[in-house]
Specification:
Elements (H helix, E strand, L loop, with lengths): L5 H34 L4 H20 L3 H15 L3 H26 L10 H7 L4 H31 L2 H7 L6 H12 L22 H17 L7 H7 L1 H27 L9 H18 L5 H20 L1 H5 L7 H14 L1 H23 L27 H14 L5 H14 L9 H8 L14 H4 L2 H13 L4
Length: 487
Amino acid sequence: MVEFANKEIEIYDKLINLIGGHLVTIEFNTKDKSKLEYLLCSSSEEKQKVTKKKVKKFKKEVDNCREEIAGYLLALADIFDNGQYYLEKDDVTKNFLSDYYDDLVQILVKENFDISEITDLEFFIISSGYDYQLIEDYIFGVSHMYFYQYYKLCLDTLYENLIPDEIESQNKKKSISDITKTTILKEEQNLDNISTFNKNLSNDPLFEKTNEYTNLKSAFTEGYKSRTAHYPDIDYLFEVNDDLELKKWEETEKEKLNNTFLKMVKDLNHKKTFFFGCSFANYEYNYPIRLNQFLENFYDATELEFINEELEFLENIIYDLQNSESAHDGYSHSGIDNFLKAYDVISITDYKQYLFSHNKKVEFLEFKKANFNVIKPIIKKSIDLIELVTTNPHPQVFANLKAFQLFEKLHQQFKDSNNKMADFSFIYRKMYNDSYILNHFKPQMFIVWINTEPYNISLDKIKTLNDCSTTQKVNTYTTTKELMQLN
């Protein structure tokens, strides 16, 4: 495998991320359309018919792909079958870029090009004098291959759901893990029939079947169904895309739905009725009410357990929203049901608005949590406040109290540095490798956590250990551990 220098890796990673952004957009637009199509199906047989059309459509697209990208699509098909699509697809994209755009990358390396200037992929490639059409064909080719495999798998699973158990057990295909297969079936069969929620989403007024928004949504579904009933099955997907009158009606009705939903959100906040994605003022008002409900349901629980559960839920949701591509396909931290509902809400109310409220809620909870973990004696200011902490204040992040104290000491040493991304990437990587940071707490979760109060570091990404490690940092880390008597 080609060995890339650090600058090369940075450039390739930037290009891969930009291509990945286009892939996410295409995939979510396609899946949003699928939600509506499956919503209109009244039986598994109808879902099977819709899925067959999708398989046929995307297979045709793959068969007609450019010769230059066929090999990469074949590699993607292999990793999908092995259940490694999200782990290895970037490697395939890197190979594609290396084969066709390495000359451009080498020029950028020699010029020490600032990769932050690459924001519009198409403009950058064309202005550099290279062929963007090949990249565009690759992007669509990857999407077509992914959806061909994806819906083929859904078709296999839907077929198994239609036949007797004895035949089902003999005909199950083993091309991908049963866990992935079950997740995809669950996603397609429960897109509008979600009944299992985290306690934060249980009995949420946004999801009540009798509210105005839900009634309008049902009317929209029935209206769409009647307006498309006359299309022949074989041409359904193509006819709908060409029906301008239907598109106009759909846009108008969706605008009504969104306006109704936003009005409901405003009214609920005004009335101080708790719901998912509520304002911080609403959340703060309902905090003692929801705490009492929690304590009544769990006899031996304390407020600290409630705070920890709230923080875990908020962190898992934000992680899934920021990694929505994988969460949508079953790799969600909050659970696919929770994620799908949260995604629907955020797509209407605006993610930036949600993030403002989210950060205030986390800050509020962290402040309350600190009151349970810090002894407050009258003491000289010179005493190290870190040592006053008696229990691990972030059990969702650190393995134990000592691990948290190690992080605090490292934070004190690096918080005023001029290269916080590299320094805190190093802290994360070393502590994660040494099991001081818990195994489930992935880089994106760490970014969300450290970007909020009380740290406010403002990281965009976590570098690899090779990219951020220096002799001085290693010595600082080792010495700090030794002083704390950590092995």
